[in-house]
Amino acid sequence: MTSPGKYRRLSxxxxxSGHFVILAIDHxxxxxxGLERTQGQPLTGDxxxxxxxxxxxALMPAGASALLTDPQFGIAPGFAQGWLPAQAGLLAPLEExxxxxxxxxxxxxxxxxxxxxxxxxxxxxxxxxxxxYHPEARDAASQREAVERTIEACAAADIPLYLEPITFSPDxxxxxxxxxxxxxxxxxxxxxxxxGIDVLKxxxxxxxxxxxxxxxxxxxxxxxxDACTVPWALLSAGAPYATFVRQTALACEAGxxxxxxxxxxxxxxxxxxxxxxxxxxxxxxxxxxxxLAAICQASGRDFRARTTPPPPF
Length: 313
Fold this sequence. Notes:
Strand content: 5-15%
Oligomer: single chain
Order of helices and strands: HEHHEHEHEHEHEHEHEHH
Number of strands: 8
C-alpha cells in the first residue's frame, strides 16, 4: 500500500491520465564533455546551466508531466533564477557516475550531501537511482544492498524511488548476447519490483541492432511486463529518436506507464550552438516531446493500475 505522500508525489510526476512523460536532463560529465567539443574550449558551470535551462524551457511545455534534473546545474539554479516549471513534477538523481571506467566497476556512490531526505526537502517529487547491475557480477550483492538502503531511506522521507537498473557484461572482454541481455533486464525487473521500489525506469529489453524483428521486441516486452509488479517507464538510453518512438509505442502497448526520456529528445543539440540549437529545440525537440506524450496518452497504462492507493484518513 502506497503512503499518501508517495501517492501524491507520483501523481504530481504523471499526467492527469496517470502517464509518465518525463524529460530527463540530469546528465552531467558526459554531456558537458560533448558541449566542450562543440565549442572547442572548457565549459563553465553557468554555461552548462544555461544549456539545461534552454532545453527545459523549450521542451517542458510541449507535453512533459515532470522533469528529471540534477541538483548542481538544474535544481539549485532553477529555483534561484525562477525558471524551473512550477506546475510539473520534479525528480532528482541520487548517484554520481564515473563513465571513464567499465560498468563492472561502477558501484553506487551518492552525490555528496545528497540523500532521499535532502531531495524531499528540496521540494522534489521523486528520487532516481541509476544502478549498474548483473546478477553474476562481483558486486551484485552490494548493489542489491544499496537498493535496499535507498528503499528504506525513501520510505522514511515519504518520497517515491524510481530505480534505473542498467545491464552490463560482468566480463569486460565480452558483450552480453542478445538473449542474456533480455534475460537480465527481465530478471532485474522481477527482483527490484519485488523489493519494493515505486517505479522501474527500464532500458528496452532487446538489443535492437542485433534483433531488429519487432516480433522479438513484443515478446520481450511481454516478459518484462509480466515480471514487473510496479509501474514501469521506458528510458531512451541514447537511442536515435526514430528508434525510441517505435520502442515507446510497443512498450506502452505492452503495459508501460510512459517514458523518462533524455538524449532521444535533445542529443543533437549538444553538437549545435546559438540560433541553430534554439531552432532545433523549438521544432524537432518540441515535436518529439509532443509525439511521445500523445503515444503515452493513447496506449500507456495508468500508473495507478499498479500502485495501491492509500487508505482514507
